[in-house]
Amino acid sequence: MSFVAPPKPFVERVGVFLADSQAVVDLRRYFGIDLPPGAVPFTGSRFEHLAGGGDRPEIADRITAEDLVAVQALSVTVPAPVALDLLEGRLGARLSGLLQAIPRDIDMVEAEVSDLAPGSPAARAWQLLEGQSDVGWVIAGKLLARKRPRLLPVYDKVVRCALGRPRPSFWLPLHDALRADDRALHRQLLALRQVAGLPETVSALRVCDVAVWMGHRAEGHACPR
Question: No. of H helices and E strands in the chain?
């Protein structure tokens, strides 16, 4: 019987991508820093910055048209009936009520487990969005990451392919990893952001997302965004 090595702990799987010397290059390429002539940044580089960001105090607790465009920058589209309901209907009002209860000004590393656990306002907001017709878990996560970029991560099929599908959710293992060893992973992400020359408006979570996403694609995995 052949020996099958157990999967690496979650924090180690993330660390492999961040420790790669290519990570800084990938981050600069993604966000369009010092690109060569003719090159363009990834559209996802506008996700957190479009119209000043989705977590601006005056719009942090409601979905705007700019939020829907920002999500499209990550290659997904909110179905038109759902988009209209978010902008003008009961769905938007329900989501707004939940967003009001989700912290806006803290990083995931600073959050309590209760901010992310099943039954929390954030988890209920994700479930509300994920349950809409033709939305699903990827779009739901990206919408919430637009509204709470410091607290809630982008998690899509590429990142899932790279890091696996933790249970009960991706949020809690990532939260544990960020807080482990005196927040070593969080500090590593901030250091990467600084070395790559990214603005502070790019959260530690997005540094992680982009580094993993770019690194995994470079390994030849043709996972859709």
Answer: 10, 0
pLDDT single digits (tens) 185-223 = 999 999 999 999 999 999 999 999 999 999 998 655 555
Distance, in Å, from the CA atom of 18 to the CA atom of 27, rounded to the nearest integer, reads: 11
For residue 165, the 8-state DSSP code is -
Dihedral of the CA atoms 222, 41, 190, 188 (nearest 10)? 30
- Report the distance separating Cα 158 and Cα 223, nearest Å: 5
Give first-to-last CA distance, the chain, whole Å.
37
DSSP assignment, residue 169?
-
Amino acid symbol at 179 = R
pTM: 0.91
Give the span between the Cα atoms of 211 and 35, in whole angstroms: 17
Query: What amino acid is encoded at 165 in this protein?
Result: R
Question: Is residue 187 a contact partner of residue 7, using CB atoms and an 8 Å limit?
Answer: no
